[in-house]
């Protein structure tokens, strides 16, 4: 099967992408609107882009007409936000936050999340999360679509403070089993971490020797 993305609609390309790039970690993002309300929304187009300094990217698709979603608009205006890791304990309420709440309404408050102050940013954190990363905006890049109506905003931010629940942290590492992260799959499906295995990264000389046997 060969498919040229230019021969089909955006929705069909979206289905191929989310069915191929998986599992995808979920960034649960809090921001503040102009009235000081806490906006909270999940995004599964999310990854690390740098370790020095630590930087993360979140892609926020735009609404029809190239209109920015609340999260991207709030970040562009305030330049601060918090990214939370989604886990088995909070995924139900996080999913509820993906509903199309009106801009003046706080999703976090509506679904029953508790907010606590940020340390280095003004944006509150969600108490019912095990990992929270306070971020400051590095840049927003309009992506895809047309110049007048971009398809999405690629939000790149620097992590200025990590908050990690004490029992997850051991000598600089995070215990994946205790974190119980949840990722997005295709369609409406989510997934937990299943069977895991380790593989050491080989050196070239070692790899070359194995090819001779």
Automatic annotation (TrEMBL):
<dbReference type="GO" id="GO:0010181">
    <property type="term" value="F:FMN binding"/>
</dbReference>
<dbReference type="Pfam" id="PF01613">
    <property type="entry name" value="Flavin_Reduct"/>
</dbReference>
<dbReference type="GO" id="GO:0016646">
    <property type="term" value="F:oxidoreductase activity, acting on the CH-NH group of donors, NAD or NADP as acceptor"/>
</dbReference>
<comment type="similarity">
    <text>Belongs to the flavoredoxin family.</text>
</comment>
<protein>
    <submittedName>
        <fullName>Flavin reductase (DIM6/NTAB) family NADH-FMN oxidoreductase RutF</fullName>
    </submittedName>
</protein>
<dbReference type="InterPro" id="IPR012349">
    <property type="entry name" value="Split_barrel_FMN-bd"/>
</dbReference>
<keyword id="KW-0288">FMN</keyword>
<dbReference type="InterPro" id="IPR002563">
    <property type="entry name" value="Flavin_Rdtase-like_dom"/>
</dbReference>
<feature type="domain" description="Flavin reductase like">
    <location>
        <begin position="19"/>
        <end position="176"/>
    </location>
</feature>
<keyword id="KW-0285">Flavoprotein</keyword>
């Amino acid at each position: 099967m060969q498919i040229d993305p230019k021969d089909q609609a955006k929705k069909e390309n979206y289905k191929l992408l989310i069915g191929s790039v998986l599992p995808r970690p979920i960034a649960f993002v809090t921001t503040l609107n102009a009235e000081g309300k806490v906006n909270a929304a999940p995004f599964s187009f999310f990854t690390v882009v740098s370790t020095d300094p630590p930087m993360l990217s979140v892609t926020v698709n735009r609404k029809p007409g190239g209109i920015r979603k609340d999260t991207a608009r709030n970040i562009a205006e305030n330049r601060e936000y918090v990214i939370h890791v989604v886990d088995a304990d909070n995924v139900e309420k996080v999913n509820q936050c993906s509903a199309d709440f009106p801009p003046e309404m706080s999703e976090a408050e509506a679904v029953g999340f508790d907010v606590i102050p940020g340390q280095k940013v003004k944006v509150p954190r969600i108490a019912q999360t095990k990992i929270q990363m306070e971020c400051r905006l590095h840049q927003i890049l309009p992506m895809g679509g047309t110049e007048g109506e971009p398809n999405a905003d690629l939000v790149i931010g620097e992590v200025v403070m990590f908050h990690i629940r004490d029992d997850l942290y051991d000598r600089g590492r995070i215990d994946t089993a205790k974190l119980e992260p949840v990722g997005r799959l295709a369609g409406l499906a989510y997934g937990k971490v299943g069977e895991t295995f380790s593989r050491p990264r080989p050196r070239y000389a070692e790899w070359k020797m194995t090819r001779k046997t």
